[in-house]
Amino acid sequence: MKRMFKYLVSFIALSVFIFTLACDQMSQQGKGKSKTLTNTKGKGFVRCGVSQGLPGFSNADESGNWSGVDVDVCRAVAAAVLGDADKVKYTPLSAKERFTA
Description:
single chain; two-stranded antiparallel ribbon; 4 helices
């Protein structure tokens, strides 16, 4: 078990290192900002498609407050990009709607 844990930690550390190098390389080439990032910053919010009430992933309470893993990821992206985790607009989508959205 300890051996597997060491491999997992090593893999994660290597992945983070490679990702950091790739991001640094992209920013040095002037490709660090995408059109999507620029548009999102211009709008001032992250648009996030969520399932229509799938507890644990995305679920709205009676007050319309969303919670779940998918919602947490959206909030994390908003915090990283815009500096405020509350700048998210949720759009409930069915399984069929997700592909076209």
